[in-house]
Amino acid sequence: MAAHLGDFFSNRQEPGRAGLPVMSVTMNDSLVLRDDMERRTESALRPDQHLLVKAGDIAYNMMRMWQGACGLAKDDGIVSPAYVVLAPKPGIDSRFAYHWFKSARMIHLFWAYSHGLTEDRLRLYFDAFAEIPIAPPSLEQQRRIVVVLDAWDQAIEQTERLIAAKRRRKSAVVGRVLFDLSAKRGFVHDLADVNPRNTKVSADTVVSFVGMEDVSETGALATKSDRVRGELGNGYTQFANGDILVAKITPCFENGKGALARGLTNGVGFGTTEFHVIRPHNPADADYLHQVTLTRAFRIAGERQMTGSAGQRRVPAAFIEDFPIFLIGNNARRTAGNLLASFDAEMNQLEARLAALRTQKRGLMQNLLTGERPLGEKFQ
């Protein structure tokens, strides 16, 4: 006899109680305290107008369950009455179910059983949720799977904390090394040219091609591809090793898109015309100037100087040329640039580790949650 989700979960509709914390479902962080959210909204409802959620329950957002918006309660609390609260029955481990509900197969089923004329109106009501056919593994297997997937989650969370700590540390250092109030005031054009003249590159030269998608929002050159110069034709932005790329168009500029060009094939690169190019007078200043373009002050000031119509607004080259900087000494600039670049290198390594862990977890979920790889007592 086929089983359904309703065989393993009931719809908890108990009213909330005073004194319990208000919780919210998030897309990536499970069920969190509303007070801990950056963009929290105050509820006008009394506690008893909320729904009670008990430790071990799963709450889900009816309008976004088809995207995986659900959370596992680690403690008792109260949630919005717009949520559905699932109380586990015998035969299901809710910790396993939380992982399971994030799998591609289950998200597809949640979408298929949601009701609404358009995706922005889809809702997964409990009655429809309860009808979804499932075949969960044994309770023993569920618990083994939880141990494995929780270990990956812990590694992911630890790496995220390391990245956040490194980012905070860099922010604290930036203020000290880039904004020396005792130094002489100047402008970017004192140390660099913006959008310098192109040099002649022969048609048979292999060069690096960089699109907007190839630069990160943390100022890194993530990828590049080799192209033959003659095959590119005209209409691209030319740059060289040691140049700094800054996205000029919204929202790429505001989001921090840009990079310090290094490791270009034959030392030459071409890319989208939506890049401004900053070429230091002295190559040793490249890291320092690159870090200036990554500062919040640079991005906020540039956003205010944008010109053009909505969706096509761009930062003018004159803004970069005339952006005020502190002209600290030559050695101080190199030291500051190298120090901040080292923070970026460490964060890039951590970001790569985080991406690998997430990829590994997706592979595990595919194997474990679909039954392709049953777990024995030992798992390597």
Provide the gyration radius in Å.
Answer: 26 Å
The topology string of helices and strands comes to EEEEEEEEEHHHEHEEEEHEEEEEHHHEH
Approximate helicity band: 25-40%
Strand content: 15-25%
Low-confidence stretches: none
Describe this structure in words.
- Residues 68-160 form the Type I restriction modification DNA specificity domain.
- The chain has 380 residues and is of the alpha+beta class.
- It folds into 2 domains: 3-136, DNA methylase specificity domains (Adenine-n6-DNA-methyltransferase TaqI, Chain A, domain 2, Alpha-Beta Complex), CATH 3.90.220; 184-327, Alpha-Beta Complex (Adenine-n6-DNA-methyltransferase TaqI, Chain A, domain 2).
- It is built from 9 helices and 20 strands.
- Helix 4 (139-178) packs antiparallel against helix 9 (330-369) and helix 6 packs across helix 9 (330-369).
- It is elongated.
Brief descriptors of the model:
380 residues, alpha+beta, Adenine-n6-DNA-methyltransferase TaqI, Chain A, domain 2, 2 domains, four-stranded antiparallel β-sheet, 20 strands, 34% helix, elongated, endonuclease activity
Summarize the structure.
By secondary structure, the protein is α+β, with helices and mostly antiparallel strands.
Topology:
Layout lengths: L2 E2 L4 E4 L10 E3 L5 E3 L17 E3 L4 E4 L8 E3 L4 E3 L3 E6 L5 H7 L3 H10 L12 H5 L2 E2 L4 H40 L5 E4 L4 E3 L11 E5 L14 E4 H4 L4 E4 L3 E4 L10 E3 L7 E4 L3 E6 L5 H9 L1 H9 L12 H5 L2 E4 L2 H40 L11
Parallel strand pairs: 13-18
Antiparallel strand pairs: 1-10, 2-9, 3-4, 5-8, 6-7, 6-9, 11-20, 12-19, 13-14, 15-18, 16-17, 16-19
